[in-house]
Write a structure and sequence with these properties.
The structure is a single chain. The chain has about 300 residues and is of the alpha+beta class. It has one domain. The protein is built from twelve helices and ten strands. The protein has a four-stranded antiparallel sheet, sandwiched between helices. It has a two-stranded parallel sheet with strand order 3-10. A hairpin with a 5-residue loop joins β5 and β6. α1 runs antiparallel to α5. The longest helix has 20 residues. The chain is globular. It is an enzyme of class 1 (oxidoreductase).
Length: about 300
């Protein structure tokens, strides 16, 4: 067994032990196919007010510019599909936001994995990334064989669907690399047909500036009035394109206690949400991704749905 094979096996075994759904590895190099696609997307202003998407264009496409001397991208998936969902007659939160903010949960696991690599293999330098730096997560996960990018632009896996987070460790160690899997969307257009705001403008292209998640989380100004009545009660994020995807029939409940919601959250009615106080917001979302929109943002979203 070569040292590359041995190190790769060690890392994948430890990733599984840490609770990751799967682990794939690809060579750190310039993303040639993604470059023109990203450029076109930005030129068409599909990022809306997410101006951070325009920054660090070269780093987004070349991990060696992000982590000096990097050789390998270790992509990891962490399941967040919940055991139970909200009361159906309620304003809705995206399932990923039910529990503790995933940034904290995953960052801790990634740090543990990096420390393990350094302890077992030796002097290895690297950085952990969880959706907070200019890294094209889905592109790397697809290159690492963890799934294919579906028509809704999310990563899809035959065995488990798409309800998982993607994270990376970029390290300066050569490993054995995985190969991409084939696309299994076929002729299905369920996600395109179901999108309430027609944000999936063509297969595999999402206009971020029309997406409910963008309006309810990223947008700081008032939500444009032409989208009134189109949000299907989503007050934070949106899961429609994932909920209708046939591959998500295979989603299984996660086993991460930190992703479990506050006990009262799932049973809240529309009236409860309309009357939510700042104290209740803090109690439910103390360490939650929902804090991103702030209490005022959530109130704005609820008002937009109610009026």
């Amino acid at each position: 067994m070569t040292s590359k094979t041995k190190h790769t096996h060690l890392i994948k075994t430890e990733a599984k032990r840490l609770g990751f759904l799967s682990c794939g590895i690809s060579k750190a190099r310039f993303l040639e196919e993604e470059a023109p696609r990203l450029e076109k997307w930005l030129q068409q202003n599909m990022q809306g007010g997410m101006h951070y998407m325009e920054n660090h264009f070269d780093k987004r496409l070349d991990p060696t510019k992000l982590v000096e001397g990097s050789k390998s991208i270790i992509s990891l998936l962490l399941n967040y599909y919940p055991k139970q969902v909200q009361n159906p007659d309620s304003y809705k939160l995206s399932k990923y936001a039910y529990g503790t903010d995933y940034h904290f949960v995953i960052k801790d696991k990634l740090k543990s994995l990096l420390h393990f690599i350094q302890a077992e293999i030796g002097e290895v330098n690297g950085r952990a990334f969880v959706d907070s730096a200019p890294v094209l997560d889905k592109a790397w996960a697809a290159k690492s064989g963890l799934g294919w990018i579906g028509k809704h632009s999310n990563l899809l896996t035959q065995q488990v669907g798409s309800f998982y987070f993607i994270a990376e460790l970029i390290i300066d160690l050569e490993l054995e690399y995985d190969t991409p899997v084939t696309d299994h969307c076929g002729t299905c257009t369920a996600c395109i047909d179901a999108c309430p705001t027609e944000a999936i403008v063509e297969p595999y292209v999402v206009d971020g500036s029309k997406c409910i998640s963008y309006f309810t989380i990223e947008l700081k100004e008032n939500i444009p009035s032409e989208f009134k009545g189109k949000f299907e009660d989503w007050m934070f994020g949106c899961d429609v394109c994932q909920d209708v995807c046939p591959w998500n029939r295979f989603s299984k409940a996660h086993s991460e206690p930190l992703f479990n919601p506050h006990p009262e959250l799932l049973s809240m009615s529309k009236k409860d949400w309309e009357e939510i106080t700042k104290e209740t917001f803090q109690k439910f979302f103390k360490k939650s991704a929902v804090k991103r929109t702030k209490f005022s943002g959530l109130k704005r979203n609820i008002k937009f749905l109610k009026d």
